[in-house]
Amino acid sequence: MTRILPTGSESGRPEKKRVPRCRPTGFTLVELLIVLTLLAVLTAVLAPVLLPSPGRALREAASEVATTLRETRRHARADQKRRRFLVDTQSGQFGIEDTRSWRSLPGEMSVELTTAQSLVTGETRGGIDFFPDGSSTGGRVLLGMADQSVQVDIEWLTGRIRISSLAEQ
Question: How far apart are CA 97 and CA 52, in angstroms?
Answer without folding.
Answer: 31
